[in-house]
Design goal:
Number of strands: 28
Strand content: 35-45%
Largest sheet: 11 strands, mixed
Radius of gyration: 24 Å
Helix content: under 10%
Oligomer: single chain
Shape: elongated
Strand order of the largest sheet: 3-4-5-6-7-15-12-11-9-10-16
Number of domains: 2
Length: about 425
């Protein structure tokens, strides 16, 4: 759980509030004048001041005062009390949050995540669903997969609304089933799901602007874990989210030759269709990732437009009929198909792996076509260790390539690249990352 106010400002992009001090009143009955310690972070964004209250038995209390460095009219706080509650047999974080802004923004009051949710290794993935209570009485279930979050329903702020007095949580796991219980929110709560780690952004619905009147936002919520049997009962009572998929609706992100994976993240997909990269098995690219099932995998960006330089070709495959085709432009240029949605591939440290696949070339000159798997820290652009399977050039039949490697002592994540450097065309199929 990340306790920060995030504000989507009119300047574009999501901004972080920073600083100390707060003009909003404290929680009724609470006092923070007699503190036992303070931690101040004046040079970072967000800049926050933490005030820790005196011991209250087995409870820990603290307050986070927040301001936005570029606009001192934006001020907020999070008051937190952590204690044990015997009824759910769980430690509980009780939070009251308040924010004042001069203008109406799209505001997030807490970020919520559970460990193991986005693990791409099927045996290690924890929690198969995100479930929330809707104001209309439904208990809604979203199965974790790398493409369902793109659908209209998962981006509909009404469908993603959380009822006052309701909850949102991750289900069902033998050890922990974390839930945020929304006791009060004004304006009411809606959610947005991250494409990579499936964390939930709990946000306020937009409020209308009243001339000369500043906006006020407030929320009270609890973070706790519910027992497994309760979690299973909630799961059984839930119904699927209304995805709103419409195959007849135009989806330019897949059909127009100039579109890229950046457009994918900025667009709603009415009929999302992308091939997947799976851990421990051969990825044959024959079928798209199902949007309505729990799937531990990552999507590979490939267009359905034959004129696109990265094309999910339905007519040429090694083990079946499909593959991913790259079309090189000219000498000195390169084309790369890579992961675009879903969890980063997880790997074990000090483990021997084989990265492998089949490549078919047509008129390829220059450095050629190859498969690259990179160990990364978290983001693909972070420096890492590269492992290559290839290279293929010329014109020929399907050819198998592999590279066996041992991951580093601190390895946790990786990233897949299908690369063509130079003119020509190359097809990739039956890609696999397997433990040896």
């Amino acid at each position: 759980m990340i306790l920060q106010w995030w504000v989507n400002s009119s300047g574009g992009g999501r901004k972080i509030i920073g600083g100390s001090g707060c003009r909003t009143p404290p929680v009724p009955g609470a006092t923070y004048n007699d503190t036992v310690g303070k931690a101040t972070f004046p040079k970072k964004k967000p800049q926050m001041e933490w005030s820790f209250g005196k011991s209250q038995g087995e409870a820990l209390s603290f307050r986070i005062d927040e301001t936005f460095a570029h606009d001192d009219r934006i001020r907020g706080y999070h008051d937190v009390k952590i204690s044990y509650d015997p009824l759910p047999d769980s430690f509980v974080a009780e939070v009251e949050a308040s924010l004042d802004t001069p203008d109406p923004y799209f505001v997030e009051y807490v970020n919520f995540y559970a460990g193991g949710v986005y693990d791409s290794r099927p045996s290690r993935k924890r929690h198969q669903y995100t479930i929330w209570t809707h104001p209309d009485g439904r208990i809604i279930r979203w199965p974790h997969n790398p493409i369902g979050y793109m659908t209209p329903g998962m981006n509909d702020l009404d469908e993603r609304s959380v009822a006052g007095g309701g909850f949102i949580g991750y289900f069902a796991d033998p050890y922990t089933n974390p839930v945020i219980e929304v006791l009060h929110a004004d304006p009411s709560t809606t959610c947005a799901t991250c494409c990579n780690i499936y964390d939930e952004h709990l946000c306020h619905h937009l409020q209308p602007k009243e001339p000369g009147v500043p906006c006020h936002w407030e929320a009270r919520f609890r973070l706790l874990s519910v027992p497994l049997e309760v979690a299973k009962s909630i799961e059984r009572s839930s119904t699927p989210v209304r995805f709103g998929v419409d195959p007849a609706h135009p989806d330019p992100v897949y059909t127009e030759p100039q579109r890229t994976s950046n457009d994918l993240h900025a667009s709603i997909s009415y009929n999302p269709r992308l091939p997947a990269f799976y851990y421990g098995i051969v990825s044959d690219f024959e079928e798209p990732v199902p949007f309505d099932q729990t799937v531990a995998a990552s999507c590979i960006w490939a267009s359905s437009c034959p004129e696109h330089e990265i094309y999910w070709d339905p007519y040429r495959g090694h083990s079946g009929t499909r593959s991913i085709r790259l079309r090189g432009a000219d000498a000195g240029g390169s084309v790369t198909a890579t992961l675009s949605a879903g969890p980063s591939p997880h790997i074990y440290a000090d483990k021997t792996y084989r990265i492998s696949g089949w490549i078919l070339c047509e008129g390829v000159t220059g450095p050629g076509a190859r498969i690259r798997f990179s160990e990364i820290v978290f983001r693909p652009r972070d420096p890492g260790i590269d492992h290559f399977a290839g290279t293929a050039t010329g014109t020929g039949d399907w050819t198998y390539f592999e590279q066996v490697f041992t991951s580093g002592p601190a390895a946790e994540l990786g990233w897949l690249y299908l690369e063509l450097d130079g003119p020509g065309q190359a097809w990739f199929d039956d890609i696999a990352l397997e433990e040896v």
